[in-house]
Specification:
4 helices; about 100 residues
Length: about 100
């Protein structure tokens, strides 16, 4: 392996670990709210973007085609993306 490829793997691993950890913590916030009504907030877009970036950096065949998946799986990303789509799509059309 050449040095640039090793650096890509290291950066991708760090991004994947950080993104995966934040995705798990976002789900832990939701579970804590549903079970104990303990309020906590999720981190929007950070984990999905980190994990998607890790998938784009990995030199594995076919990995780039699924780089959109972390944005859908993360509970901090999907509600924000749906809300933005509603706001800029439907809500703006009905505004006088």
């Amino acid at each position: 392996m050449h040095t640039p490829e090793v650096i890509k793997w290291i950066v991708a691993a760090l991004l994947a670990f950080t993104g995966g950890w934040v995705i798990v913590m976002n789900y832990a916030c939701v579970v804590a709210w549903h079970t104990r009504r303990k309020h906590s907030s999720t981190v929007p877009l950070v984990s999905g973007l980190f994990f998607a970036g890790a998938m784009l950096l990995r030199p594995l065949p076919g990995m780039r085609t699924f780089a959109w998946l972390p944005l859908v799986v993360d509970i901090g990303c999907l509600p924000l993306l749906v809300q933005c789509a509603y706001w800029f799509g439907i809500h703006r059309k009905h505004k006088p």
